[in-house]
Design goal:
CATH topology: MetI-like fold
Largest sheet: none
Low-confidence stretches: none
Organism: Photobacterium proteolyticum
Mean pLDDT: 84
Pfam families: BPD_transp_1, OppC_N
Structural class: mainly alpha
CATH class: Mainly Alpha
Subcellular location: Cell inner membrane; Cell membrane
Family: Belongs to the binding-protein-dependent transport system permease family. OppBC subfamily.
Number of helices: 12
Helix content: over 70%
Order of helices and strands: HHHHHHHHHHHH
Radius of gyration: 23 Å
Main location: membrane
Length: about 300
């Protein structure tokens, strides 16, 4: 019994335990994590918590938010030019902007990591050819590439999701390829190869743990880009179409009311800004925690 207690007291924390301890010590990152959990809960339960149907005319036209002297507590964020409850539309828009961005980023990360790892572990002509292809594709901004795809396939939610997904995959491939390729060239990998270690062993035990920072950075960047691109395409009328409650489409529909009813524009804009800020806070906290855990 005494030996077990001594073993527990002397147990060395794992890399993940050290990373979590470092993350918990970052108050700003923890704030971002709680906000991210809040966004995820709203995304999953939006249909059950909205007070009104998103496209139902439930109040007076352009009713101010509840904190305005002319507002009403029944419509906390006021109503739009068609009398629809803005709070209900913002809550449901979490699924269409933040939720879809999260799914797109995760889907592109899986494909990008697999291809990037395979390319980074290889050498010679195939690796060089992929490198030049990626340089060519990445020279086109992701939003412009998405617009080209949408212009070919037509506007619509499904098409913009596919377009942004295709635009994000090369970014992941390039980032993971570069990280793996740089790691493979290090002395400890060369020494492990000389000792007879195969590629799978090196990848699982040595390379992947050391490129977690690159994966975290790219995933954070991909989610932020996906949120902004979905909103931008919705704002331009190439994405979600009226009467959708997607945040960018809400901005585009209300831009003419910015002086008459500024809350119809500022609230969707603040929702986009808040979601991007939260994602970057969590991503930066993870990067710092992983780096501190490795050190």
């Amino acid at each position: 019994m005494l030996s077990n207690n001594i073993y527990q007291e002397q147990k060395i924390p794992t890399q993940w335990e050290r990373a979590w301890q470092n993350y918990r010590g970052n108050s700003l990152a923890m704030f971002g994590l709680w906000c991210l959990l809040f966004l995820l809960i709203v995304t999953l339960s939006a249909h059950f918590i909205i007070p009104y149907a998103p496209n139902q005319q439930v109040g007076e036209l352009l009713m101010p938010p509840s904190w305005d002297p002319s507002g009403h507590v029944e419509f906390f964020f006021g109503t739009d030019d068609l009398g629809r409850d803005i709070l209900s539309r913002l809550l449901l828009g979490t699924q269409l902007t933040f939720g879809y961005a999260l799914l797109i980023a995760l889907a592109s990360s899986v494909i990008g990591i697999v291809i990037g790892v395979m390319a980074g572990m290889t050498r010679g002509l195939k690796s060089s050819f992929l490198n030049h292809i990626l340089d060519t594709v990445l020279s086109i901004p992701s939003l412009l590439l998405a617009i080209i795809v949408v212009a070919y396939m037509g506007p619509g939610e499904v098409n913009i999701l596919l377009a942004i997904w295709l635009a994000l995959i090369p970014r992941f491939i390039r980032a993971i390829y570069t990280a793996v390729h740089n790691e493979v060239e290090k002395d400890y990998i060369i020494a492990a190869r000389l000792d007879g270690a195969n590629d799978f062993y090196l990848l699982y035990n040595s390379i992947l743990p050391n490129i977690l920072t690159a994966i975290t950075n790219e995933l954070t960047r991909a989610i932020s880009i996906a949120i902004l691109d979905i909103a931008a395409l919705g704002f331009l009328g190439l994405g979600a179409q009226a009467p959708s409650s997607e945040w960018g489409a809400m901005l585009g529909d209300s831009i003419e009311l910015i002086y008459l009813a500024p809350w119809t524009v500022t609230l969707p804009g603040l929702a986009i800004t808040f979601s991007v800020l939260v994602v970057n806070l969590v991503g930066e906290g993870l990067r710092q925690a992983i780096n501190a855990g490795i050190d």
